Please model this.
Amino acid sequence: MIKHIVMWKFKDGVVEADKLEMKRQLEALKGVVPSLIDIEVGLDVVGKDASKDMVLYSEFSSMNDLAAYAGHPEHLKVVEFVKTLVCERAVVDYEI
Model:
């Protein structure tokens, strides 16, 4: 199984409604992208200097399934929206 973790920092001035819309769009990929087993998206509640603002946790059966998710047209639409809101992105993919 592959775990795919993404963390973002929002640009200055991003409003709460857009943050929630990003979360909604990401979570809506479950059931739309066949290779996506599970997804969880959370907004940071602590706000420390080292904190990112949002995190995505997702699961895939294989690296091929992760690649299929990454290239899926519905995922790519969400990516375009996300890019308008964020200034930093960090990713970790690991196998268990």
Notes: The chain has three helices and four strands. The radius of gyration is 13 Å.
